[in-house]
Amino acid sequence: MKISIFGMGYVGVVTAACLARDGHQVVGVDISPDKVALINRGESPIIEPGLGDLLKEAVQSGNIRATVDAETAVVTTEISLISVGTPPIAQGEPDLSYVIDVCKDIALSVKQKGTSHVVMLRSTVPPGTLEYCQNLMEQVAGKDLISTAFNPEFLRESSAIKDHDCPPYTIIGTESSVAEQAVRQLYDKVKAPVLVVKPKVAEMVKYVANTWHATKVSFANEIGRISKAFGVDGREVMNVIVQDEKLNISPVYMRPGFAYGGSCLPKDLGSLLYYARRNNVFAPLLNAVPVTNDLQINLAVEQILSSQVKNIAIFGLAFKSNTDDLRESPAVSLVKRLLGEGFQVKIYDPAVYKSHLMGTNLNYIQQNIPHFQNLLVATPKEALEGVDLAVTTHNTSEIRQAIEQASHKIKILDLVGVFIEKPKHREYESLAW
Ligand SMILES: NC(=O)c1ccc[n+]([C@@H]2O[C@H](COP(=O)([O-])OP(=O)(O)OC[C@H]3O[C@@H](n4cnc5c(N)ncnc54)[C@H](O)[C@@H]3O)[C@@H](O)[C@H]2O)c1
Questions:
Q1: Which secondary-structure segment (H or E) carries 148?
Q2: 159 CA distance to ligand 1 centroid (A)?
Q3: Hey, which end of the chain has fewer CB within 10 Å, N or C?
Q4: pTM value?
Q5: What's the rounded Cα separation, in Å, for the pair 70 and 7?
Q6: Which range marks the domain in which residue 43 is found?
Q7: Are residues 330 and 202 in the same domain?
Q8: Which of 103, 133, 166, 264 is catalytic?
């Protein structure tokens, strides 16, 4: 393919060299004449293992040239990649002006060219930027000439060529089949699964990936500090933790939904935080975990308060389905708050209904909702009778079917993703997705 790449920085120059090696014809565009001159001499403008050799070969083979002339670059190519910087301005806000300037340059040049062109945004940008750029370029070049995709870059400096060649996946954020095909063709030598998603999802994925990496580093460091205070080697601990690929390093617990609860998670985190405090170990990340967990319950209460209903059916009281364990269940906290706000509440939870609660479990619920037995009903149908709002805290097909089949008009607040698709003919709200 004939490709122009805007921005010959850490991302752009590695991408240019790899694509040229794979047989594509690449024009690198940068506003820095010094960078352009270096690349045209086959010299790398950055230090990156293997890049010097790759660039030299690409220049010698004639597969790469660099220029400051945006128009010629666009007119002589079929696809433009944008990898200019998006540095922070103030309070973390990214400066999108370099991306916007390049989009204007490309659109003006496509208008000159008069034939269709694909624009692939690779700079890290907030969700909605591709849509904004598409509209902007359409205003300049007219409709139908430009197709766009967001394709995040996952390379890491110092292993950039390896990461380019073997990424975890290729993400194509687009609504355009033309752009999708162009991106697929561009990377046909890259061995990685391809995921096609909405542009905003792809833009968010890049932010989340880096936020997750930062969180993991800080999590491991806080665990290291607390472990050390116990006289334990945190590296040994984390070495064992990462070997559990069923629960620890896995998709489990990694979906937005309701708060965590139960007899173990709040207790054991609380205990670890107690010992951290006692040993003067500052662990702000872990200390924030119960705070953000409570916020999830508050958010559910606020959504219910604003829904202007009086009678509510709660589907699930235990901390998860198929258990009668009510200790530290977020659903118990939710019901307690709703009763305090004066709502009429019915609860459907078959495991709790059938159970003979005793011991700490019984004590816990009696302390929080002494008359809970009066609120429990035997069937989902009974729970739904006469109520205006169904709130799901458990995710079961029985609950989904019962709510779908309810004969009267009922609102739904889904806290756990019972409904994958928004149900038709129902007022539906989800909590945090
Ligand atoms: N560096 C990384 O490891 C990495 C990895 C993944 C994603 N990203 C993202 O990729 C983007 C680029 O990062 P980078 O580190 O390569 O940036 P960089 O600052 O190294 O390079 C940006 C280049 O764009 C050029 N430029 C600016 N305006 C231009 C214009 N109008 N026309 C042509 N060129 C122009 C600059 O001169 C510079 O050479 C950022 O959004 C970054 O967040 C970076």
A1: strand 146-150
A2: 17
A3: C
A4: 0.95
A5: 11
A6: 2-196
A7: no
A8: 264
